[in-house]
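Dear colleague,

Thank you for sharing your sequence with our group. We've completed the structure prediction you requested, and as agreed, I am returning the results in plain text so they can be pasted directly into your records. Please verify that the sequence below matches your submission; if there's any discrepancy, let me know and we will rerun it promptly.
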Amino acid sequence: MGASTAGPVRSAEFAETAEPYRRELLALCYRMLGSADEAEDLVQETYLRAWRSYEEFEGRASMRTWLYRIATNVCLTALERRGRRVLASGLGPPGSELDDEGALWLSPLPTPEAVVTEREGLRLALVAALQFLPARQRAVLILREVLGFHAGEVAAMLDTSTAAVKSSLQRARARLDGVLPEPPPEPTEARARELLEQYMAAFENSDPAALERVLIKDAALDLAPSRTWYDGVESCMAYLRTVMGSPGEWQMTPASFNGQPGATVLYRGEPFGVAVLTVAAAGIARITVFT
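Please find the predicted structure tokens below.
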């Protein structure tokens, strides 16, 4: 009997056993594509495919592993269709508009408290760097290094050999080492909150001196989707002073994106975008603004 003719009991069983994995499948799809909106769509596609083939699920692998196999292949198909990659900052002269029509910017992924334990695997820098890996290498690295699946499990998901998985992982690690920046020393959670509060207050009060005090010397500023970026506190502040405006024009609400402190932003009462901070013990190391 096909899944489309399954009765309400089977439907309820599928929902009960599959639904708990939705959040982590969203994180997988986001890591694979770098887009929160696309990730949502691909999770929906994953559950649709899983439901249609649920009658054929024999339980030889766990429900979680089975869903990850479907989701991974849904992502690989989407990447084949898209044929574009995310362009991380630092690939052209600071302050320039990079000429790369095939490049996409990341979109931030809101991270509620429930996913705080996964934040290391969702950092903007890591997700951006992952986009420079070939799609199957990306899948192997995420499944093995971030999610902890065994090589044999990954081989089954990708219909390949364990040896091929190990080889892909080795190549992925080497390539990632070449593009992933060294993370700054982590601040305490209290320090991270303090830096976010100072950042928001500086903008809301139109106080560039206060903002400059919380930026480290080699801070960077990314502006998405324009792909313009600034390197060094002087360069960042030269731009930021031109947009800070008058007190009260900017309103910010604290939030978390990709496991990092951030804020949703209003300008003159209208939605503007979000700001995501990469913070270090010494101060703010990077501001990424999504509009």
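Summary note from our side: The longest helix spans residues 63-82.

Kind regards,
the structure core
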